[in-house]
Amino acid sequence: MGENNLTGIYFCFPKNGNTDVVDISEVASYAGSIPEVTVTWHSGNLPLTDINSLAATIRNKSIKRIVIAGDTPGFEKAFFTKAMVSAGNNPEDIVLASFREHGAISRADTERAKAIVACAVFGVPFDLAAAPDESDVNTETLVIGGGISGIQASLEIADSGNMVYLVERTGTIGGHMAMFDKTFPTLDCAACILTPKMVEVGQHANIELMTYCEVRGITGTPGNYRVTILKKARRVNLATCIGCGTCSEKCPATAPSEFDEGTTLRKAIYIPFPQAVPNKYLIDADSCRYVQEGKCGVCAKVCPVEYCINLEEKDQEIELTVGNIIVATGFKPFDAKKIERFGYGRFPNVVTSLEFERLINAAGPTGGEIVFRTQDKKGNWIFSPDSNKPKSIGIVHCVGSRDENHNKYCSRVCCMYSLKLAHLVKEKLPDADVYEYFIDMRSFGKGYEEFYERIKGEGIHIIRGRTAKIEEKGRQLMMRSEDMLNDKLIEQNVDMVILSIGLEPRQDAKEVAKMLGITTTDEGWFNELNYINDPVSTFTGGIFIAGTCQGPKDIPDAVAQGAAAASGVLKSISNTKIKQSVKDLTLDKIESQAKQLTNI
Amino acid sequence: MDFEPKIVSFLCNWCSYTGADLAGTSRMKYAPNIRVIRIMCSGRVEPTFVLKAFREGADGVLICGCHPGDCHYHEGNYKCLRRYHLLQKYLKQMGIQGERLKLEWVSASEGKQFADLADSFTETIRGLGPCKVKENVETLA
Amino acid sequence: MEEQRIGVYLCWCGTNIAKMVDVESIAEEVGKLPNVVIAKNYKYMCSDPGQELIVNDIKEHNLNRVVVSACSPRIHELTFRKALENAGLNPYLFEMANIREQVSWVHTDRTAATRKARQLVKAAINRVVFHEPLDKRSVDINPATLIIGGGVSGLSAALEIGEAGKKVFIVEKNSKLGGHTADIDLTYPYMYSAGQMLDSMVQRANDNPNIEIFLESEVDEIFGYVGNFESKVKDKNGKETELNFGNVIVATGLKPFDAGKIDNYGYGKLPNVVTSVEFEKMLKTGNILTKEGKEPKNVAIIHCVGSRNPDYHEYCSRICCMVAMKFANQIKSALPDSNVYELYADMRAFGKGCEEFYSLSSSKNILFLMFDQKEGLPLIKKAGSGDNCDMIIEMEEKLSGENIEVPADMVILMVGMEAQDNAKDIAHQVGVSMCGNDFYIEKHPKLDPVATTTDGVYIVGGCQAPKDITDSVSQARAAAARILASIAYGSVEVEVTTASVNEDVCCGCQTCIKVCPYTAISFDEEKNVSVVNEVLCKGCGTCGSTCPTGAIKCKHFTDVQILSQIEGLMTLEEV
Amino acid sequence: MNNRVDPDFIKSLNKFGRKDWNACMHCGNCTAVCTLTDRGVLFPRKDIRTLQMGLTSKLATSVEPWMCYYCGDCTDTCPRDANPGELMMTLRRWLTAKYDWTGLSGLFYRSFTSLVIAFLLVAVAIIVIGFIKKFNQADIMHFGHSLEFWMIIGVFCLILVPNIFRMFYFTVIKPKVGAPFGSYITGFFSLIGNMFTQVKTLKCDKQSLRWFEHFLVVIGYLGLLVITVYLDWFGTINQIIIYAGYITGGLVFFFTLLLMFSRLSKGSQLTKYSHSTDWFFIIWLFLMGLTAFLVRVFIDTGLLTDHFWLYMVHLIILAQWGILLVPFGKWTHFLYRSFAIYFSNAKTSGLKLKGQL
Predict the structure, then answer these.
(1) Which candidate from C339, C399, C403 shows the least CB-CB separation from D49?
(2) Exposure winner among A46, C97, C551, D133, fewest CB in 10 A?
(3) Can you give the three-state secondary structure of chain D, one letter per residue?
């Protein structure tokens, strides 16, 4: 460093109106105090325009290096590169101090922002300087969420001979994937490929499966976390239940089946679905008459096993100590009711894609028959096998996604699963007309584009133009859209409409993040340590994120991430040391470590 | 008493056997004439097995494997398919109607399809009447 | 053959079985059969008392074979095998008859169901007679790992394993690590510096004693099997190094499509038509200039060059849309008063933060024009004198249906990505299979995206299919997880129910070698017989059924086992 | 070459209204959600595309902007906040300028100052005339009356009619849609109907109240026009005429007041953004109604002689209205709209003839 290597720092102010951001002026004054820095300047909120004057400044002040600091300073880089070149400098000597990249997002992170700037000035990669101390690690791991990512992560770790606690909120593992019929683009059935893995989890010697449980609190430090888990009263003894189903047969109380997206009814004592793991019954307190009204208790009477059903069972809390935690809490589907123009909830045959997955599933409410939604005696809208079949079906893409009024982001999977559903409809109802309305067809993955081409060849009408509204026309539904590639306005009458709903963070994502001490995006997706090259670690040591809780993803990507998170865990177990949290590093520590690295 | 076909069927462990189990777990009903032998892959099915079945008095033999492309061992089901066509020729020479041997793809999710298949195949065989092979062999012997 | 002492156990499964099958009578009958020492029926065989029943009987009546007829073996075979083990009996001396899923739950006529159940039990008894004790086998894992390719995927995998304290060899054919990422200026969607990111990764790799890097080197053929591979690394001076390793990660990445193949775009003929790769260099060096050294007023970016087009590659290259968007932003930053046109087909902004990036870019006066390759590519022509621009792009704009002209001083072709030229050779060397596009095939497209059908060999990053840095890193780490797990475990279980060759009977026709999907069978020239490598064999039995001389025996699914099972099914018809 | 894309055009359009239609990603929602779109009549997305690409000559042929009554549905539901509704409004301004052969309306839209200057000039002219006539009440009121009369004739013959013909040329002749002659005859009556009722507005959901307000203003305005110009409201002694005048005048300034408030409160999408000319239009309409009303009150109460300035003010406003706002401002929209419908019907029947629909 020193005289012959003068550094100028440019600060970009955030362009959006967001107020809770890093205090730029404070960081700027700090930067001014670093000896190597000659000049710091910023444009306030104005965008840069005059390259020549900038080049002049660089020349006059004989600046050799430039640091661009800000939330996402990369947007200004090309401008500076040009200026540096015209000032006769080496464009390689531009360093980005990106606050977002290293997790300095809100005003509270101003200290870290300073550290980021410091590292940039010293020319030391931030993640090298910001290396936390290491400590011993407990070899046991907690995995939160029993969806496909959680399952994958658990198996990877358990196979290494280390203990895993897999905590799942519902009565069975499997997550959303278990609900799907086929999976794109290969169309192999979700259950066939998933259930063997579920069974494996259930039987694995190193996995303690804790279904119907929720994580309530976490204390301690990386490598040595103490976790409080709420074991909800299942009221059926997992050890002795032999899954014969007599109880369910006799149970008088019913409720909409969560697993079938409420498209059919289940009993109050039930197994979520035939291949559930553990394949044991559980009692849903909200719909159980005994729990609610204190009478009934038929299940306990008919149960062939003694003391298997205990209606008096209460919730209890368990304490665990683990070294690492993998968060794989997944997503929640967008609530289609929010878009009134589509009439979901008003028109019985406007269904969500997830409902349709159940409807078309061979193991679903109708054994895979595509039928109209009908009302049963009690007035519940359900799919019953004996009702009629639609002759035409419309599919609406991007429901709740790519929309400033709802979710700005793209949900990544809808295009493909919509194509898949279209294909499945054709398979089951070859004479049915299928109309698919999309904005951009995002078939990006391996074999996806080929799948798209295949579907096009199956006589499905694929139309570019977002459906704007759905109205009831007699017994049918009218979808109004613009077919912009053929310069037409389409008012298409169909019997049934599938809304390809997007993915949303779980409603309690932000609380969970708080409990774990990790951060989320504005929407509530968990933030990774580095979006580009560390997508599964977080700023908290020993806590990893996997699958759709980090952002929408398809199955292969979720699986890969699950495994990737496992690798983070195995890394620390394998060298018996774990890194503490990056977020806890002080400015001084990072500064000094950076200085050391420069001296090397 | 009227004729009750005896049917031996070979199911691959990964798709068809699982499918047959699914038919059970979802309580689908089908004819009790099918007797299942579990093998790892339809590619394992030897001609001898089929002939043995007929020799022992089976009226029909049903082989089920994963759908093309889904084979757990990549292409065992294709191997089986090839062998099946040869077998068909051979059976005819032996005076056994080709319809008595059937090869079908049943995936792990197709419990319903398996149940239907069991019924339809039973009916086919019922239509064909008893297979005489066993008696013939015994009279010869 | 020692005396057969078989114990038969029928399960009621509460009423699930008993309701439809007369288990007691069956127990009574089969009890009379030869070799059957005891036949019992119990309410719940799977329950702990049920299992104790078996264990005790084995000890008491020193049984050496056990048959349980209950639910599907897919549910409880393991349970009962464990029971046998607890009783000190080899778990494979066990057979299960499925009389719930495939009898009691699917039939309605009790007599018929009972008859069927009886036959299944008899068949199981027939079969179990010929069962042989099999020993679980496992091979030790060499903790070292070979990584082919030092791009961002290979690098992340190396760091993951190396920093876990395990040995890693990276073999990179170029003179520096980083692959394509090293040529990139910024990454989308947050415009982070690829260089800075890579610097730290490379530094970590260099500083790590566990990571051994071979630059400008290539791997020779790889021999051995999971846990115990060996190969040679040759550097450019022909210097060879022997390597032994337990796992292989293939991270050979991909290469850009050759834009010269598409006439319409005049790449190579028109000086100011450049590829996205060349433009990245311009961005890094900071001079976005035409060949004439002028700043371009109009810059056109053409998407899907070589992608989504059956004439070249049908697949989508996954990242070009976002890279193009990134270019547009950088151009607008460096040349604020230039016009940027994006000629696209579908805007694939699917990643985290990408759709937001798209809408942000839209607000920067970037003009998005849609074309459809199926109905003809845009045509780039040299502009006339009066046009005051260098080139004219003629295209049919799909969103307006207009035939339009787009002025351009520079055209950037977003070239797609395709498999490396030497993909096939590598595939042969490591023994992975390829799909039509020369990308490597994963073990399972969804649930096993990084493993291959060859145990111990993993494919990550671009060589499996085009993908961006983030997704490549996830894959790399996924593979690392597998490897770390296997190392930690120290050994891998290998299939027990494998095939084996009876050398006296084998005629050396080598048919089996042709049909084996795992190249597990090799030929012993001297003895002139086939030899099964039981580590590679997965026990599908295809070879067994193909073998003309019956020399191949498929353990636990031997001919005699199955044939006698058939007999069992057919006997006891009219009791 | 006129099909050369021109990304700069969109910037030049900013003068005519709020900017940033590049946000549009062409999902087609706006066109589909609109209740007024129909086969062959697709907007606003297509116009957004044309203007993004800067194909001005194509844009000039579009009658669609006149079909929009700005209910705001498209803007409410736009997934990119691209505000298509306001775009239609802006295009209407741009087209008005395009049709106007004098180029003045374009000038007034683009520069506020020039508009103000024009207003001052007119005011000065009136005052000068006042001087010449020595502020003799009878003379001036006579002059005012004839001024009104000639103004209407003049504006109509010299500006409005030629502009309508230009519109006809741009939208029908140039794009060469061979509309059958008959369709012009048959369409004529609906043209008149639309012109005075703007009944198409009712096709928009939640618009009926606005339509009613609008309708009363038009009635009031036309009524006042007839009564003052042809029945010489300020001169007459016929009680019926006088009261009719009061009512119509009242209507005008009362409902314009309402409209002004709604613009200030910015309740609906329509009223969110207001171009300077919108304000001029509505305020002057209001002032006209008000002053006319007061003048007559003063006449009846005999105050006018002492407060003759009031009539001068009225006259100035009247002149500014008649010479500037009517031919070059928003007033023309009600003509263009009706003719747009007239032409587009002709167009569609033309297309039907070609079998393109």
Answers:
(1) C399
(2) A46
(3) CCCECCCCHHHHHHHHCCCCCCCCCCCCHHHHHCCCCECCECCCHHHHHHHHHCCHHHHHCCCHHHHCCCCCHHHHHCCCCCCHHHHHHHHHHHHHHHHCCCCHHHHHHHCHHHHHHHHHHHHHHHHHHHHHCCCCHHHHHHHHHHHHHHHHHHHHHHHHHHHHHHHHHHHHHCCCCCCCHHHHHHHHHHHHHHHHHCHHHHHCCCCHHHHHHHHHHHHHHHHHHHHHHHCCCCCCCCHHHHHHHHHHHHHHHHHHHHHHHHHHHCCCHHHCCCCHHHHHHHHHHHHHHHHHHHHHHHHHHCCCCCCCHHHHHHHHHHHHHHHHHHHHCCHHHHHHHHHHHHHHHHHHHHHHHHCCC
Instruction: Give the residue on B whose Cα is nearest the Cα of A180.
Output: B109
Beta carbons of A101 and C349 less than 8 Å apart: no
Residue D310 C-alpha, separation from nearest chain C C-alpha, in angstroms: 51
Residue intervals of chain C classified under CATH 3.50.50.60 are 145-253+420-492, 256-414
Q: How confident is the model at residue D356 (pLDDT cuts 50, 70, 90)?
A: low
- CATH architecture of the domain C6-134 equals 3-Layer(aba) Sandwich (3.40)
Superfamily of domain C256-414: FAD/NAD(P)-binding domain (3.50.50.60)
**What digits encode the pLDDT tens for the residues A298-341?**
999 999 888 999 999 999 999 999 999 999 999 999 999 999 99
**Domain boundary assignment for chain D:** 9-99, 104-354
Q: Which fold, C499-555? A: Alpha-Beta Plaits (3.30.70)
Inspect the interface and report whether the beta carbons of B18 and A274 lie closer than 8 Å: no
Chains D and B touch (3+ CB pairs under 8 A): no
CB contact under 8 A, D25 and C370: no
| Amino acid residing at B47 | P
Q: Per-residue pLDDT tens for A154-212?
A: 999 999 999 999 999 999 999 999 999 888 987 777 876 787 788 789 878 899 999 99
3-state secondary structure (DSSP) of residue C377: coil
SS3 assignment, position A534: strand
Judge: C400–D25 Cβ closer than 8 Å, yes or no: no
CATH topology of domain D104-354: Fumarate Reductase Cytochrome B subunit (1.20.950)
C residues 428-487 near D, CB within 8 Å? none
A405 and D28 within 8 Å at the Cβ level: the answer is no
Q: Chain C residues with CB inside 8 Å of D58's CB?
A: 402
A406-423 tens-digit pLDDT = 999 999 999 999 999 999
Restricting to B residues 101-120, those with a Cβ less than 8 Å away from any Cβ of C are: 115
Q: What is the pLDDT of residue C538?
A: 83
**A264 versus A46: which is more confidently predicted?**
A264
Q: What is the pLDDT of residue D206?
A: 63
The tokens describing A491, both together, are 């008012």
Of B47, B36, B39, B32, nearest in space to B8 by CA: B36
Cβ atoms of C467 and C482 within 8 Å: the answer is no
Minimum distance, in Å, between the CA of residue A358 and any CA atom of chain C: 20
- Provide, as residue numbers in chain B, all residues whose Cβ is less than 8 Å from the Cβ of A363: 22, 26, 109, 111
Per CB-CB distance under 8 Å, the chain A contacts of B22 are: 191, 274, 362-363
Q: Which residues of C touch A147 (CB under 8 A)?
A: none
A to C CB pairs, distance under 8 Å: 280
Q: Of the CATH numbers 1.10.1060.10, 3.40.50.720, 1.10.3720.10, 3.40.50.300, which one belongs to the domain with range D9-99?
A: 1.10.1060.10
- By residue count, chain B amounts to 141
Task: Tell me the CA distances in angstroms from D231 to D162, D226, D245, D251, one per residue in order.
Answer: 28, 7, 10, 18
